[in-house]
Amino acid sequence: MEEVRLMKGNEAIAHAAIRCGCDGYFGYPITPQSEIMETLMELEPWNSTGMVVLQAESETSSINMVYGAAGCGKRAMTSSSSPGVSLMQEGISYIAGAELPCVIVNVMRGGPGLGTIQPSQADYFQAVKGGGHGDYHMIVLAPNSVQEMADHLCLAFDLAFKYLTPAMILADGVIGQMMEKVVLPPFRPRLTEKEISEKYPWATLGKPQTRNPNIINSLRLESDEMEELNLLLQKRYAQIEQNEVLYETFLCEDAEYLIVAFGTSSRVSKKAVELARAEGIKVGLLRPITLFPFPKIPISQLANQVKGMLTVEMNAGQMIEDVRLAVNGRVSVEFFGRMGGIVPSPDDVLDALKTKIVN
Amino acid sequence: MAKIKGAVVIDEEHCKGCNLCVVACPSNVLALNKEANSKGYNYSYMDNPDECVGCAACAYVCPDACITVYKVRV
Amino acid sequence: MTLNEIINPANLVYSKTKVMNDTPMHYCPGCSHGVVHKLIAEVIEEMNVQEKTIGIAPVGCAVFAYKYLDIDWQQAAHGRAPALATAVIRLLPDRLVFTYQGDGDLAAIGTAETIHAANRGENIAIIFINNGIYGMTGGQMAPTTLEGMKTSTSPNGRKIELNGNPLNMTDLLARLPGTCYVTRQSVHNVANVRKTKKAIRLAFENALAHKGTSVVEVVSTCNSGWKMTPADANTWMVDNMFPEYPLGDIKNL
User: Fold this and answer.
1) CATH code matching the domain that covers B4-73, chosen among 3.40.630.40, 3.30.70.20, 3.40.50.300, 3.40.640.10
2) Strands A102-108 and A76-80
3) Pair B70, C11: CB distance under 8 Å
4) Which residues of C touch A24 (CB under 8 A)?
5) Which has the closest alpha carbon to A136: A91, A78, A86, A170?
6) Are A56 and A82 in contact (CB under 8 A)?
7) Nearest CA among C182, C184, C195 for reference residue C251
8) Percentage of residues in chain A having pLDDT higher than 70
9) Which residue in B17, B41, B59 is closest to C14 by CB distance?
10) Which of A276, B23, B31, C137 has its CA at 20 to 30 Å from residue A179's CA atom?
11) For the whole model, what pTM was predicted?
12) pLDDT < 70 stretches in chain C
């Protein structure tokens, strides 16, 4: 029988990391996600699975440790919150350029700058549009429950290794800090070095006589080689967009209006949909689970059905740009959001729906 | 008393004519050639081969690892 | 005896190590990097550890180090090599892991990564090329640039009141409990080439024996950046660099 446990989203990430065969966690404390490393240090996985857990001197160092571990074909991860993830952008760009798989957890807080420790979704652009320099994307997963924090960690590793790209779990302070029931994923053993060298022949494990040196690298001094790498990356991103879109709909079948929201905003919006339905307003909810790849097609299809859309975000309006691109002007797409760490209430969303869309 | 005879072979194409081997040679064996290799470098050569004792000083200091050294007792 | 009789495999006393491949190195004529690359390759061959060595290349002139030594390499972002090396040695503790870093990489942008890796006592070897200038970007001032030394960003000579003092990273690293062996060497003549090779060998042996972090600084020339011939650069280094960065073991536990 499945064991149901009660824990914080951050704790679920830590438990899931050990269970899904993660080889190394490298991080630096920052609110509101410090429980991830604290839980790992408490659980001491180096005594059970052999997973390495190391507190680095900075987020810059953490992400570069992840680079080093990923270069050896290991399942490596880090976690941070917004200011720390800003500091990681250099490393993430290098990881993308070197075609390395890894997982980065961002439990977002309000910004810009040192901002606030309260929850926010203001790093959407940074996460889905690249963040660091150069033409790259990460796979971005947006959990909205403690259960998904656990499930998405394993999924993120699988996708990262499938496409040799960094994958991000874009949560926020609410999801990280709230306690819910969770069924933890089953244990998967860590890969042996033999398995790694067979599955990931590019890994730098030391060069046997039987092969040429492996070189983990994002440098291409010749322009044609640089373009070649970029074309390869773009091809992979197209495959990701083709194959890996995840989303969830709620009461969309007969919907005349649509709310699009992810993460914590989607939980608030779901309640707002129920309140609206009780008043006879036919509104549905589409929750993107992957933010990259973005669920363009289902949103585009719903644009043929509904009279208007509202995006609900804990930022100044970021995802709305992708919704508008998908809708391409066919219906009105409006925005409602709060900033600075304020989580809107279902009533706020309902009011916005009535004033901005339904009328 | 046995005499030591040495000789070096210089990879002329890899040599960049930096002159460090010429300076390092205790027996004044080496010099830079008036001819240049395909990259335009005046590569090193044995100007005075009879004096070479195969000490390998030139090879130790060569930044481009282009000197091979032989030595024999006669 | 003719030359052809001497040049015979039976009489071979020195040839390029097999760990170095035949790719022509991109370094300027006379650059110290080539000698240090060669010594690392020779030590790897002599210790028979080619199959278990992972090198971490820096950003700077040595960014292409991975082209010349036939071992597995990771190329790091500028200054981050010790962070990569930390993860590699933690996850592959029986491997030989070394970083190869210049003075910009190790003493400027990667100061934090270097000090913290050494302070944790990561079981790695750090090879530090200190030529007091930024070679790759065209001769700008480095943290290790000497007082009064002219570079493209200190065209009238480094002034302490404007640019601060030359940073002696190796002395700093020797003070950390995590380091087991810290030495400063050079490759400007045969005797010092031999000493540097011994130092690299000891650093690699320490890493494999999990004794902590070893640091081998090689005070080097950048004759292009210094605008001298390679031989003059060696003389200038002896006269000017060595007083600020004296050769010898600073720590050997």
Assistant:
1) 3.30.70.20
2) parallel
3) yes
4) 87, 90-91
5) A91
6) no
7) C182
8) 100
9) B59
10) A276
11) 0.97
12) none
